[in-house]
């Protein structure tokens, strides 16, 4: 009952006119960015990060949360209408969703996606309200050795899951950790990897890296392919009724439930975000469809769209709970939001719930409001978002470039940071060009300092005895799970190579 009382107080804060405005603005921005191919919630949060310092922390994080959820809704719109997913988490929705659109059932497909995302997100948010206090109690038993094990688990799990090539995932992770080593060592006071440049003594800002890699790097990548890619920007399959009839609801409802159950655990597992559960949900429905007398997959099966959508938003909702209670980012967007907490002098974890309850509970209440706002936005107006694609690419990406520069200039007013922005953007372009995943880099940058500090603290407390790293049941459980993840990754790689040889 205590959680319900706190949630009621949170709604009192979230329903204030200014915070309600940030909910709507965040949902609109997230959906708008999501419908633009190649852009996503991570880029939107990265661009907004330097521009929200004037806001109070509660308003800023309500805005970020709206963008986070709205990005998933927008990604699905383009995946269905144009077979162009904005992010990898929407890829599974293209398989059956786009076939529905080509068959003239685009409104029904969009309604299926919107309701599925609403169901998954709402169930996850309800669960977060009741599970977060338990996660907080669990996190209070974590010491330096446990946090190091958790960071190591996030490093390996993210790198091995989100990339087809494990070496590319690990390489991206190493680059992210390497960037965090630049600057002055907080313990010894020595400078590291600064090349003698005083501008690097304070290290490289995470804001600069996120804007460079996710936003400006994407601009360079699109510019390099503008003559090669000739997209068809017409929205097809736009006719029909914008709602589901009773038979379609009965068909989709079980898939929404199964997708939600699949997506929930991945909200607290550092597996790169919603990509893995969406594919698992799609595969589960496809296997069930094979047992039917008349299989429907491959012809626009509504279940093949409903399950991934519910799974994606269920994962995102639980990821917010893991971020608040454990300080554990399970995706690049969550990693950027963790950095935003640092910019406001806040540290997610048990103390956040104790010392900043006036932020946490309005933020949790805003999740419920965001789900409702997104359903209202996407059900009647989903197809209108596709018209954003009619903006000429030179204007669209020129605007993004301008905002990148202005955002970084606003944080430091230093020409050096603009040069650094361009240099890291080239790195982001090369990563896109050669198919290196970005999520491990972001996870490495955010959790790299935590891993280094925790390792040092643990070894200092044990006078250099490395056995302290495996001296508690929690660390043994985490390392056991890590071995399972590695074993599954090796098994998957062997299967892929075997199929290739056949």
TrEMBL record:
UniProt entry keywords in alphabetical sequence: Membrane, Transmembrane, Transmembrane helix
Domain DUF112 per the UniProt entry, residue ranges: 20-443
One Pfam family in the UniProt entry: TctA
InterPro entries for the chain: DUF112_TM (IPR002823)
Chain ranges passing through the membrane: 20-49, 61-82, 109-130, 142-163, 170-191, 203-224, 322-341, 361-382, 394-427, 468-490
Alphabetical list of PANTHER family matching this protein: TRICARBOXYLIC TRANSPORT PROTEIN (PTHR35342:SF5)
Name this protein carries in UniProt: Tricarboxylic transport membrane protein
Source species taxonomy: Bacteria, Bacillati, Actinomycetota, Actinomycetes, Micrococcales
């Amino acid at each position: 009952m205590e959680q319900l009382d706190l949630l009621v107080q949170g709604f009192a804060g979230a329903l204030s006119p200014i915070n309600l405005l940030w909910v709507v603005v965040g949902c609109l921005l997230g959906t708008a960015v999501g419908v633009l191919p190649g852009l996503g919630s991570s880029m939107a949060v990265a661009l907004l990060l330097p521009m929200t310092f004037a806001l109070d922390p509660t308003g800023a994080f309500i805005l970020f949360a709206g963008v986070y959820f709205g990005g998933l809704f927008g990604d699905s719109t383009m995946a269905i209408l144009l077979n162009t997913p904005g992010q990898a988490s929407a890829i599974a929705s293209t398989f059956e969703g786009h076939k529905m659109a080509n068959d003239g059932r685009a409104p029904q497909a969009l309604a299926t996606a919107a309701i599925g995302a609403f169901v998954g997100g709402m169930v996850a948010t309800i669960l977060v309200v009741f599970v977060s206090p338990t996660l907080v109690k669990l996190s209070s038993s974590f010491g330096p050795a446990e946090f190091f094990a958790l960071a190591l688990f996030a490093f390996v799990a993210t790198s091995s899951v989100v990339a087809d090539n494990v070496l590319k995932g690990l390489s991206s992770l190493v680059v992210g950790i390497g960037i965090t080593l630049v600057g002055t060592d907080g313990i010894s006071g020595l400078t590291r990897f600064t090349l003698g440049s005083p501008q690097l003594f304070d290290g490289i800002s995470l804001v600069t890296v996120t804007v460079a890699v996710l936003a400006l790097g994407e601009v360079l990548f699109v510019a390099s392919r503008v003559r090669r890619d000739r997209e068809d920007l017409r929205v097809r399959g736009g006719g029909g009724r914008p709602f589901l009839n009773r038979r379609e609801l009965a068909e989709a409802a079980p898939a929404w439930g199964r997708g939600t159950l699949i997506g929930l655990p991945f909200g607290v597992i550092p597996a790169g975000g919603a990509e893995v559960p969406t594919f698992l949900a799609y595969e589960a429905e496809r296997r069930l469809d094979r047992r039917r007398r008349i299989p429907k997959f491959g012809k626009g099966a509504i279940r093949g769209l409903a399950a991934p959508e519910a799974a994606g938003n269920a994962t995102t909702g639980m990821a917010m709970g893991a971020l608040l209670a454990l300080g554990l980012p399970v995706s690049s967007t969550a990693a950027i939001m963790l950095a935003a907490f640092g910019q406001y002098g806040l540290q997610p974890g048990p103390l956040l719930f104790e010392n900043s309850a006036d932020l946490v509970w309005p933020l949790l209440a805003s999740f419920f409001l965001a789900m409702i706002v997104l359903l209202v936005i996407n059900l009647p107006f989903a197809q209108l978002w596709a018209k954003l694609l009619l903006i000429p690419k030179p204007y669209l990406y020129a605007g993004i470039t301008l905002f990148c520069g202005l955002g970084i200039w606003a944080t430091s007013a230093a020409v050096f940071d603009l040069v650094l922005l361009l240099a890291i953007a080239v790195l982001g372009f090369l990563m896109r060009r050669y198919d290196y995943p970005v999520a491990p880099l972001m996870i490495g940058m955010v959790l790299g300092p935590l891993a280094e500090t925790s390792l040092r603290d643990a070894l200092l407390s044990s006078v250099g005895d490395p056995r302290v790293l495996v001296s508690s049941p929690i660390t043994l459980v985490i390392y056991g799970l890590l071995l399972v993840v590695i074993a599954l990754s090796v098994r998957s790689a062997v299967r892929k190579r075997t199929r290739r040889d056949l």
